[in-house]
Amino acid sequence: MKKISTVAISLTLGLTFLLTGCASSTTANKTSAENKPAESTTTSQTAQPAPKVIKDWKYYSADQVKEAIDKKSPLQIVDIQVEAEYKAHHIKGVIPTYAYPVKTDEEKEKLAKILPQLKASKDPIVIVCPAGKGGAERTYQYLYDQGIDEARLFTLEKGQSGWPYSELLEK
C-alpha cells in the first residue's frame, strides 16, 4: 500500500510540474507584439487551427492514367518537371508548371498561376514530377493548402521516370 501511495504522489507531482512548467514557459515566451491589444475590432480573436499536414498520399498508376487518357475521362495532369526535362519528354495533354522542386516561393508562384484552372473543375488532379516523390508531395500539400479538395489529389506513381508508354509522350 505504501508503494502505491508513493507512486501516486510521484505521478501527481510530476504532472503538476510538467503542466505548470509548460504554462509558464508559454506565457514567458510571448513577444511584446503578442501582448499588445488588437488594433482592429473586425479581426477574430479565436485561434486558427493548424493546417493539416498530408502524410497519406494517394497515387494513380501509369496504367490508370493511360486508361483515363485512352477513355478521355476527365482528368487534370499537372506536370511540375523543370522546363528542360519537360521539353525532353512529357505526357501529352499535361498542364506544364516548371515548378519542381516546389520549395521556394517563386516555385510555388508557378503553381499559383494554374490554381484558377484547377479550381474551375471538380476533376481528379494527377501530379507528375520527375520521380513521384518529394516534389509531388510538396505540390500535393500546396494545392491542398490553397483549397483544392484532397479527394481530387493524386501523384503519378514513380513520376515521369516511371512512365512506360512512349506513345503518349511528347518530345
UniProtKB/TrEMBL annotation:
The keyword Signal applies. It comes from the Bacteria. Residues 28-49 are annotated as: Disordered. Keywords: Signal, Transferase. Residues 1-28 form the signal peptide. Residues 71-169 form the Rhodanese domain. SUPFAM superfamilies: Rhodanese/Cell cycle control phosphatase (SSF52821). Residues 28-48 have a biased composition (Polar residues). GO terms for molecular function: transferase activity. The keyword Signal applies. This is Rhodanese-related sulfurtransferase. It comes from Desulfosporosinus hippei DSM 8344.
